[in-house]
Specification:
Layout: H1 23-28, H2 36-56, H3 65-75, H4 81-97, H5 107-119, H6 132-135
Helix pairs in contact: 2-4, 3-5, 4-5
């Protein structure tokens, strides 16, 4: 992608974007509605996205569809599709919890997800047939 991502100053404090959105507080608000491991995973996945944004000089909250698509496209070479889709879900969940415009519903994000699934498919492995040794 040759388009620029939205630039902004870095986060003023951990978990707080330059626009003053508190992603940690948003994820904490999910307690009771989701399993602890789900919230922990979302926190970790969103932190990885926020770190990438800080490295690129982009603002994670609110994120633009261009920023999200570029992040997913850059990660295709290093991650399988399941972790990438999980990271996309974490970004979407934080945006929804903060009642921000969801960059995951854009056409750019949809196309990035399709590229992930085509480039890194999760295909099941063929099971071995049952032979005489396995029956015994």
């Amino acid at each position: 992608m040759s388009e620029d991502i939205s630039h902004g100053p870095g986060a003023s404090a951990p978990g707080v974007s330059s626009a003053g959105h508190d992603c940690r507080g948003a994820l904490k608000a999910l307690e009771g509605a989701y399993a602890t491991t789900t919230i922990s995973g979302n926190t970790s996945d969103f932190s990885l996205f926020a770190d990438w944004c800080a490295e690129k000089g982009a603002c994670p909250l609110p994120s633009t569809p261009v920023t999200l698509a570029r992040y997913l496209d850059e990660m295709i070479g290093t991650l399988k599709s399941a972790p990438l889709i999980r990271r996309l879900a974490a970004v979407v969940r934080v945006h929804r919890a903060l009642e921000l415009d969801n960059p995951g519903t854009s056409e750019r994000a949809r196309l990035a997800r399709r590229r992930i699934q085509r480039h890194r498919p999760n295909r099941p492995r063929q099971a071995h047939g049952i032979d005489r040794d396995l029956r015994a």
